[in-house]
Write a structure and sequence with these properties.
Blueprint: E1 2-12, H1 16-21, E2 32-50, E3 53-59, E4 65-71, H2 74-83, H3 88-100, E5 105-113, H4 123-139, H5 145-157, E6 177-182, E7 185-190, E8 197-203, H6 210-218, H7 227-253, H8 256-273, H9 279-282, H10 285-291, E9 300-305, E10 313-318, H11 321-335, E11 338-344, E12 352-356, H12 367-370, E13 377-379, E14 385-387, H13 388-398, E15 403-408, H14 413-420, H15 426-429, H16 434-447, E16 450-454, H17 461-466, H18 469-472, E17 477-480, E18 484-488, H19 494-505, E19 508-516, E20 524-532, E21 536-544, H20 548-554, E22 564-574, H21 578-587, H22 599-609, E23 611-615, E24 618-622, H23 626-638
Parallel strand pairs: 3-5, 12-15, 12-17, 15-16, 19-23
Antiparallel strand pairs: 1-2, 2-5, 2-6, 3-4, 6-7, 8-10, 8-11, 9-10, 13-14, 17-22, 18-24, 19-22, 20-21, 20-22, 21-23
Length: about 650
């Protein structure tokens, strides 16, 4: 199993994590707010279980290799953690994991590190998150990203390090997040950007004493006793809150110039209010030499210090990709400082949808001997009679999907093409009303966006999805079931609701709905913990058609009625990695109930890539059973 954990850079809000923590003592202190994002560099590793040891093979920044090996015994791990040093972080996290979970050992081969260490990019936190994530994935501890972050934090403070709470935010990857610190409570909200933003991270090639900075600034808390204390609390409190609020808005708008202005203001206010509390470290002549270097000014919108500030690292926001490269060239040539690129990009848009429609329809036999179930008629809310497959295609297209693949048996392809690609004979076309003639053209237009893919053998839902691998390529895609209809309770289609969640989070998403526990044996089910109450769930387990007894014991979700379970709605947004797992099952002939299924591969994708569940505001209608189809004919027409 391969993992990547990036470093993290604090775009705005340095020091506010520990400052906001003092609210547990003094409630008049402002909450702490920070916006952080993962870097484009990090720790790359392969991980696997070990029966008795923690083994960590590390590649350091100078490409040197160091190995660490220790028995997975609590006392040995604790002693190694408390000694300090690079490997103490791995030992500290392993100690915390072993304290809270039943695990054996683990082997971590950190084969590549392209993240600079000790430069304010939280390399130590990245090590801690890597170890927590390795245990989580290898032993399927069902920790959410937040859970991994918490275990990483506990592990790091087991060492002599006294990191802040925002460091382990690198667990969220290279997407920006807004963190709020209120005493011991932390809230995390993802921030999506609408345009590419180009940053330059600069190693100032100087030194700073972070412990001295933190020691001096902590003297200003929890109660302000001097004017200096008050101005430090003012900057880390109300001033920082305003700057972060405005920066979040600028990020969402893709406003690079606005971000640059805010960075410049943040640095100026920091110099005025905070630097006097530790002048030996925070006057930072090297930082200011960079920020005011004349040849850079036409290329950047602004910049500021990074991390605990001082002469460690800096961040600049360039005007575009070209000026980003030019700025790096000037900094390295004129100032002899090393640079890294950081590009924040909008969430990847989903363009393609896949609809499997090659099943035989055994539960609707003998009707399916005459008519494919996907071609059964239904009446929509517009009063028009349509084949089921058309309503599903419209669900995708109305959500903004550009291309649709329908998986069919080769012998049935002509039937589907008849709907979307073949106009009726002219004598029949002339008999249609003008409205239906226009609708006929609409069908042909849809047909230009549809590709038919063949499933030669019907070997399960997972096999059907795999047939779309080459067509999908490396893109994320929307997956819709061929025997489900959907009706939204909002102006957005059900599929559009899922796509919005994916584009905000960048994570795989499955639509879910609340279902009486007595009915769960007919559906795939999920469980997990809420990211947003009653809306977005961090999925910790998939289960295919469990018994009500199993569901009651293992699949309950906090906040739901005791008689409800979350079942799969029939819509997914998936990373193309799913095809790797499906291919492995097919190559190794791993079958469930005689077929290649999707659910176990979804659970693997959850373990390695993360998965969100979204409670869709809408209804699903199943046509796969006679009684369900009969009920759908009535309910779908009247939905909404």
């Amino acid at each position: 199993m391969k993992l990547l954990v990036p470093g993290r850079i604090c775009l705005f809000g340095e020091h506010s994590d520990w400052a906001g923590g003092y609210r547990r003592v003094n409630a008049e202190i402002e909450k702490g707010y920070a916006i952080i994002t993962g870097t484009n560099q990090g720790l790359h590793a392969e991980v696997k279980p070990h029966p008795t040891k923690l083994i960590f093979r590390a590649t350091l920044g100078n490409n040197s290799r160091k190995d660490f090996e220790i028995p997975m015994e609590p006392q040995a791990l604790l002693e190694a953690a408390q000694k300090g040093g690079f490997f103490s972080y791995a030992a500290g996290v392993a100690y915390q994991i072993m304290t809270h979970y039943r695990v054996r050992g683990i082997e971590i081969d950190n084969f590549l590190t392209d993240l600079p260490v000790k430069k304010g990019l939280s390399s130590s936190a990245a090590v801690c998150v890597l170890v927590a994530r390795a245990f989580n994935r290898v032993y399927d501890l069902k920790l959410t990203v937040r859970g991994e972050m918490e275990q990483a934090y506990l592990g790091e403070i087991t060492t002599p390090s006294r990191c802040g709470r925002l460091d382990q935010g690198c667990a969220y990857g290279n997407r920006p997040i807004l963190m709020t610190f209120d005493g011991d409570r932390i809230d995390v909200k993802e921030v999506s950007v609408s345009k590419d933003l180009h940053f330059v991270i600069v190693d100032l090639q100087a030194e700073k004493d972070t412990r001295e900075i933190l020691s001096r600034l902590n003297r200003c808390y929890p109660f302000a006793e001097t004017d200096l204390h008050r101005q430090v609390q003012e900057y880390l409190g109300p001033i920082n809150a305003r700057l972060v609020q405005e920066a979040e808005k600028a990020l969402r708008q893709g406003d690079a110039e606005g971000l640059g202005t805010l960075m410049t203001e943040a640095q100026a206010k920091f110099d005025q209010c905070v630097a006097p509390a530790c002048p030996s470290q925070l006057i930072a002549p090297v930082l200011h030499k960079l920020l005011h270097h004349g040849p850079l000014q036409p290329l950047i919108y602004g910049g500021k210090g990074v991390g605990s500030q001082g002469d460690g690292s800096a961040q600049l926001i360039a005007r575009d990709a070209a000026t980003q490269d030019q700025a790096i060239e000037i900094i390295e040539r004129d100032l002899g400082m090393k640079c890294l690129k950081l590009v924040l990009r909008p969430g990847r848009r989903v363009r393609k949808a896949v609809i499997p429609a090659a099943g035989f329809g055994t539960r609707l036999f003998p009707a399916t001997k005459a008519v494919k179930k996907e071609l059964f008629p239904v009446i929509g809310r517009d009063g028009r009679a349509k084949p089921v497959i058309l309503t599903i295609v419209e669900e995708a297209i109305n959500a903004g999907i550009e291309e649709v693949a329908i998986i069919v048996q080769r012998s049935d392809q002509e039937l589907f093409e008849e709907i979307f690609c073949t106009p009726p004979p002219i004598e029949n076309f002339n008999k249609l009303s003008r409205e239906n003639q226009e609708y006929c053209q609409y069908l042909m237009d849809i047909g230009h966006r549809i590709t038919f893919l063949s499933q030669e053998l019907q070997e399960g839902f997972g096999h059907a999805v795999y047939c779309a691998r080459k067509w999908v390529g490396e893109e994320p895609f929307l997956l819709l079931l061929g025997d489900h209809l959907y009706a939204s309770d909002t102006e957005q289609t059900c599929a559009r609701q899922l796509l919005d969640v994916y584009e905000r989070s960048g994570q795989n998403v499955v639509g879910v709905k609340r279902t009486p526990i007595a009915e769960v044996q007919a559906f795939g089910c999920v469980t997990g913990t809420w990211d947003n109450p009653d809306s977005v769930l961090s999925v910790s387990e998939f289960s295919e058609k469990p018994t009500p007894e199993f569901a009651a014991q293992h699949l309950r979700v906090d906040g739901l009625d005791p008689n409800e379970i979350l079942t799969v709605f029939g819509q997914y947004v998936l990373n193309a990695k799913i095809f790797d797992y499906l291919e492995e099952h097919i190559r190794l002939n791993i079958r469930e109930r005689g077929e290649f299924q999707l659910t176990s591969c979804l659970d693997r994708l959850r373990q390695e890539d993360g998965f969100l569940g979204f409670v869709v505001r809408g209804r699903r209608f199943d046509i796969g059973l006679p009684d369900a189809y009969r009920q759908t004919l009535w309910d779908f027409r009247n939905a909404g």
